[in-house]
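// run 5 | inverse folding | seed 20
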């Protein structure tokens, strides 16, 4: 599965080992992190005041969310950026694992966290320790390995709708199945940029 990892860098010194453990766990379980930003963030932290291209980072974050199957959030530290990424992920119907370290200041009810007040079946919240982390992540990924069915409206011309009616009858597929097959074929065979992007992810996660 493709996983977008989210965490605040404001207390990186304190939670760096936890963040690294989460990313390492995801990789050991055979999953791909769609934006492996943590090593770069640690390097920047050591250098001190380093100028970064925020527009480029935001573009990569959005791209990472859109191409991911699930989101894993380390939410022990509150930040606007993490909250914004959670909102984007929910809008795209991405399952979210919201992790909080048991030794953090947050209460068991997750009050004052990003997910306080959010009622969504897409969110799984858990408090973790070094001994329970692998089990929690593995359980979440197993429960979401088949993905979430996403509905969207599509406006068609009469000619395209006529074709879909004919194709679904001729090939014995409903319209949704036929459209899914066309998109799948484009993803796997025609979209070179997307295939190159996935290849780069695989290379980075080896």
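// decoded
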């Amino acid at each position: 599965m493709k996983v977008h990892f989210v965490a605040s860098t404001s207390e990186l010194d304190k939670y760096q080992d936890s963040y690294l453990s989460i990313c390492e766990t995801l990789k050991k379980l055979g999953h791909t992190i769609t934006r492996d930003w943590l090593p770069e963030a640690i390097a920047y932290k050591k250098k001190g005041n380093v100028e970064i291209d925020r527009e480029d980072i935001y573009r990569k974050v959005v791209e990472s969310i859109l191409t991911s199957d699930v989101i894993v959030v380390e939410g022990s530290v509150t930040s606007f950026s993490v909250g914004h990424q959670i909102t984007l992920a929910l809008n795209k119907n991405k399952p979210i694992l919201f992790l909080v370290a048991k030794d953090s200041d947050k209460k068991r009810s997750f009050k004052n966290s990003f997910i306080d007040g959010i009622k969504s079946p897409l969110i799984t919240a858990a408090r973790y320790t070094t001994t329970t982390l692998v089990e929690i992540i593995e359980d979440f990924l197993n429960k979401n390995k088949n993905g979430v069915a996403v509905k969207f409206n599509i406006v068609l011309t009469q000619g395209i709708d006529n074709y879909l009616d004919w194709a679904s009858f001729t090939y014995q597929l409903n319209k949704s199945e036929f459209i899914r097959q066309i998109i799948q074929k484009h993803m796997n065979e025609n979209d070179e940029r997307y295939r190159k992007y996935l290849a780069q992810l695989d290379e980075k996660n080896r």
